[in-house]
């Protein structure tokens, strides 16, 4: 699955990382608690979250997470976008609930990390 | 090589800036991505702890080809019971810190997991010094 597939599947909006929309997304992890994200050993995954602040981008930066999908229509601030661009991340947003998003992506073949 | 970064208590918009700088340095040294991730996650957890709990702090980073040694010294309330603080799930974080997605009582255990050696010294009412050592080879 690619970020482009995710955009089409969820009618998501791309905030940044347009140049990486054809990259392969193998796994996903959904959490609002960044402490949980920091305990995950897997890199190169999609983070699905309803938490929207600068520390989400920082957490992704430290964890080598290149793809972030904000659910529940969360807003991405210019500061968050700038840090995401600096780290070459793909940032997507969609209005659906986290449960719905996880269900749709799982059904479409995106794998959990455990 | 030695670097020092000032950490500001309470300023969440700057939390992680020092760890980010160290990550860039380690990349330049051609350290493996998996090892860089371990090191910077431990640093970031420590940095967030200073921002969340202390008034101010300094992150001192010393590394050569073999080892990275990071000492984070803060002025703050200190940790009355380090054994208790190391227990997963124990937290004294404020509601504000929890709203940011932290403060679940997993920071110190995660720092221990992501470095080769962790030591914590603390004096109540004065501050805390955390030292983490990780071998680069």
Tags for this model:
heterodimer; A: 114 residues; alpha/beta; Udp-n-acetylmuramoylalanyl-d-glutamate--2,6- Diaminopimelate Ligase, Chain: A, domain 1; 5 helices; 35% helix; B: 137 residues; alpha+beta; Heat Shock Protein 90; 36% helix; globular
Describe the 3D structure.
The complex is a heterodimer of chains A (114) and B (137). In chain A, 35% of the residues lie in helices and 19% in strands. Chain A has helices at residues 3-10, 34-37, 54-62, 78-86, 98-107, and strands at 13-16, 27-30, 46-49, 67-70, 90-93, 111-112. Chain A has a six-stranded mixed sheet. The longest helix of chain A is centred in the last third of the chain and has 10 residues, at 98-107. Chain A starts with a helix and ends with a strand. The mean pLDDT of chain A is 97. Chain B has 137 residues and is of the alpha+beta class. Chain B has one domain: Heat Shock Protein 90. In chain B, strands 1-2-3-5-4 form a five-stranded antiparallel sheet, covered by helices on one side. In chain B, helix 1 packs antiparallel against helix 2 (33-53) and helix 2 packs antiparallel against helix 5 (107-113). The model of chain B has no long low-confidence stretch (mean pLDDT 95). The interface between A and B is medium-sized, with 20 and 25 residues.
CATH superfamily membership of chain B: Histidine kinase-like ATPase, C-terminal domain
Derived structural class of chain B: alpha+beta
CATH class type of chain A: Alpha Beta
Principal-axis shape of chain A equals globular
Topology (elements, then pairings):
The complex is a heterodimer of chains A (114) and B (137).
Chain A: H1 3-10, E1 13-16, E2 27-30, H2 34-37, E3 46-49, H3 54-62, E4 67-70, H4 78-86, E5 90-93, H5 98-107, E6 111-112
Helix pairs in contact in A: 3-4
Chain B: E1 2-8, H1 17-28, H2 33-53, E2 56-63, E3 67-75, H3 82-85, H4 95-99, H5 107-113, E4 117-123, E5 127-135
């Amino acid at each position: 699955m690619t970020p482009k597939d995710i955009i089409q599947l969820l009618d998501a909006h791309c905030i940044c990382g347009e140049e990486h929309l054809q990259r392969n997304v193998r796994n996903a992890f959904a959490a609002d608690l960044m402490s949980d994200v920091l305990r995950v050993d897997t890199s190169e995954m999609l983070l699905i979250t309803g938490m929207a602040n600068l520390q989400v981008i920082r957490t992704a930066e430290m964890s080598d997470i290149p793809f972030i999908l904000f659910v529940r229509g969360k807003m991405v601030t210019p500061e968050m976008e700038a840090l995401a661009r600096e780290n070459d991340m793909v940032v997507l947003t969609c209005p659906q609930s986290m449960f719905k998003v996880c269900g749709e992506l799982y059904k479409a073949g995106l794998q959990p990390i455990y | 090589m030695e670097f020092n970064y000032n950490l500001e208590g309470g300023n969440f918009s700057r939390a992680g800036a020092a760890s980010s700088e160290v990550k860039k340095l380690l990349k330049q040294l051609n350290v493996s991505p998996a090892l860089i991730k371990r090191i910077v996650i431990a640093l970031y957890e420590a940095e967030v702890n200073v921002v969340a709990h202390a008034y101010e702090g300094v992150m001192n980073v010393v590394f050569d080809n073999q080892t990275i040694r990071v000492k984070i010294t803060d002025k703050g309330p200190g940790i009355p019971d380090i054994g208790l603080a190391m227990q997963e799930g124990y937290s004294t974080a404020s509601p504000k810190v929890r709203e940011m997605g932290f403060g679940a009582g997993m920071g110190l255990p995660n720092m221990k997991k992501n470095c080769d050696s962790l030591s914590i010294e603390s004096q109540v009412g004065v501050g805390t010094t955390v030292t983490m050592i990780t071998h680069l080879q």
